[in-house]
Structures are given as C-alpha cells and as structure tokens.
Amino acid sequence: MERVLGIGGVFFRARDGKALSQWYARHLGIPLDGPFWQEAGPTVWAPFAEDTDYFGRREQQWMINFRVRDLDAMVLQLRQAGVTVQDPQTHEVGRFARLHDPEGNPIELWEPLDAAQLRRVEEAYR
C-alpha cells in the first residue's frame, strides 16, 4: 500500500503574509523562499474534538507543532527577541512550550523524547 512520506506543506490565511513570513524566518528559522528541509523525526497526526479549547480561539481550526532539538535554548532565544512563550511543560512524549505568531495563530514547540524512549511509549499504546 502506498502511503504519504511526510508533510509537504502547511498553508494558511494571513492578514499580512509577507510580514508573517518574515516573523517565522527571524524567530523560527523557516526560510522565506523555497522549501523548508526538515530533519527526520516523528510527526503526529491527531484530529481533536471540534469543541476543544487546546488551540485557543474557538474559530481556530489548526495548530502547528514544530520539533526542536533544545527547547530551553529555543524558549530563551524567543524571549530575548521579545516573543511571549509559555513555560515548558513535560508530557509523556517530551517537553512542550506554546506561543502565538503575530496574527494569533498558536504554535507548539516540541522537544521529543529520544527515539528509544518514543518507541517504548508507542509500544505501550499498542
């Protein structure tokens, strides 16, 4: 059976696409032009209940989650640049921190467990 190989793109509406692209480039290192080459690693595909409060605003239909190598360093870097970031939280698959882009879109930063730890968690769900 054929299957997808990964996320090919994330597309969303913006009031000021150019300014928002510059913010993502400056603060998260996502290039303005051309593709964003990701490092191999886990990706979670998880629909949420339509009445979830997890994304923030009720009309918010999506939330992006970016994997990071060092969550503490990333949070510090963002805060030093004046970006508001919630304190990191630890969950069973790693550590997370939440922020919002200038247009209010929620972003979650994820420092996953190492591969062996993630496999143990995955096996526990089987």
From TrEMBL:
SUPFAM superfamilies: Glyoxalase/Bleomycin resistance protein/Dihydroxybiphenyl dioxygenase. This is VOC family protein. Pfam families: Glyoxalase_6 (PF18029). InterPro entries: Anthracycline_SecMetBiosynth (IPR052164), Glyas_Bleomycin-R_OHBP_Dase (IPR029068), Glyoxalase_6 (IPR041581), VOC_core (IPR037523). Residues 6-112 form the VOC domain.
